[in-house]
Amino acid sequence: MTTSGDLDRLWAVVPAGGAGTRLWPVSRAESPKFLHDLTGSGRTLIQATVDRLRVLAGERVLVVTGAAHADAVREQVPDLPEDLLLAEPSPRDSMAAIGLAAAVLERRDPDAIIGSFAADHVISDEEAFAAAVTEAVAVAARDDLLVTIGIEPTFPSTGFGYIQMGPRLRAHPTAARVRQFVEKPDARKAASYLATGEFRWNAGMFVVRATTLLDLLAEWHPDLAAGLREIAADPSLLESRWETLEKIAIDHAVAEPAADEGRVAVVPGTFDWDDVGDFKSLSCLLPAGDGAMTVVGDPERVQAIDSGGLVVSGSGRMVAVVGLEDVVVVETDDALLVASRERAQDVKLVVEALKAAGRTDLV
Questions:
Q1: Where does residue 213 rank: exposed (0-12), middle (13-18), buried (19+ CB within 10 A)?
Q2: What is the pLDDT of residues 29-39, one digit of tens each?
Q3: Among 240, 274, 308, which residue terminates a domain?
Q4: Is Transferase found in the keyword set (predicted)?
Q5: For residue range 217-251, what is the model confidence (pLDDT) as tens digits?
Q6: How many domains does the chain have?
Q7: What gap in Å lies between CA 22 and CA 297, rounded to an integer?
Q8: Could you tell me if 76 and 56 lie in one domain?
């Protein structure tokens, strides 16, 4: 059982990074997807994330973001204390970002348990989310394990990594050992995973004692762990030491090798979750308007005749779509995207082509 004392040790860490290239031209390097209200809720993705986590952690919410986005985060979350916003000089992947937060919190509170939850995910059924996090905190507190929350798959996705569940942890309601983390599979393998009932989607959610995370990291990447602790001890070293840190994802650095040694647990998440990875994913999250067309923005600015799909209207111009099904139309002040929903993943190729052409002003 989780006690209120367990949750009193929880610090919510929000890594806010990534360019979201599959959501171009809405998401850009200077204005990534977590800074946008993509769901029409009136809150941007990072605002909704912070709202959700404050229910569990109160004011113990720390955001890690790139230096280029720090001012925007301050504007969107104005009540975030200055010392709870960490600005990375450059992207060094998820291990450095989460590890820096862990190192800072370890010094602030040696008993701190951190829960890392990305700034750009959409979650419904917040009661179920809170229950999963609460159980994960209990496992981290009592068993001193690295805990992840695995999402129950609703279809054989080839876009997510998977977690294989092992034996149950009998002292907890639903938690189990993790047998292994597996990379994004092909369609056939994904279907076989679902058939076993043992696999969950890897949503990149981790709950663990801050000290345990850094000690695990020190086993496989000692220089990275030492560098992060040095920066936390002396923040003036951030600029000079940051670029020397190894660039690696938390899954590869810690989660996968620790799972091989039986030191990772998973709590099944029963809530709806989406990482809003592309426009097809976004269209599935939103209710269709009149007819089959889903509109993000002002529906009065969209005329859809015998058409279905998604329109993201950002400039205030009128958008008319006639006789097209499963189409994605995204228009901003300086760019227009037209694609099929089935090719939504390939929007990233546009960004790559623009970079190759030197059009950094558009990406």
A1: buried
A2: 999 999 999 99
A3: 274
A4: yes
A5: 999 999 999 999 999 999 999 999 999 999 999 99
A6: 2
A7: 19
A8: yes
Same domain, 248 and 286: no
Helix, strand, coil percentages, rounded to 5, for the chain: 40, 25, 35
Q: What is the pLDDT of residues 66-95, one digit of tens each?
A: 999 999 999 999 999 999 999 999 999 999
| Mean pLDDT within 190-214 | 97
**CA–CA gap between residue 61 and residue 127 (Å, rounded):** 19
Residues 178 and 247 in one domain: yes
**φ, ψ (nearest 5 deg) of residue 265:** -120, 160
What are the C-alpha distances in Å from 107 to residues 53, 103, 111, 232?
22, 7, 9, 7
Task: Say if 286 falls within a structural domain.
Answer: yes
Q: Three-state SS across 204-215? A: EEEEEEHHHHHH
Domain that includes residue 283, residue range: 279-362
Helix locations, 277-324, DSSP H: 279-285
Cβ atoms within 10 Å of 84's Cβ, excluding its own? 20
Rg (CA), the chain: 21
66/204 same-domain check: yes
CB atoms within 10 A of CB 92: 20
Note the pTM of the prediction, 2 decimals: 0.94
Cβ atoms of residues 70 and 17 within 8 Å = no
Token reading at 158: 């080839």
Q: Return the H-helix or E-strand segment holding 310.
A: strand 308-313
Task: Determine contact, residues 110/215, Cβ cutoff 8 Å.
Answer: no
